[in-house]
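Side project, low priority. Logging it here so it doesn't get lost.
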Amino acid sequence: MDQVQSQPETISLDFDKFLRYVDRRFQDICGLSINDVEDFDFSDYYPGETAPKIEYAQAVVDAARDCLSNAAGVDVANKIMGEDE
């Protein structure tokens, strides 16, 4: 008996909408916006205009997490801890 493998659901998502999802996730994590972060290239995480839905979901999580663990996230961490005043 042959098993039919289901293909992952593919969707289209432009970069601006991808950034809105990243921003929402970022706010969930730290309460700030990706606009509060300088020198971090979120486009490195963008899977392209058409990709499996699961790739977009993982890219959003990875982008938000990596930004906070990257040097670009240091300013954000300082804002959260109140050390930038």
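Brief comment: The first helix runs from residue 15 to 30.
Revisit when time allows.
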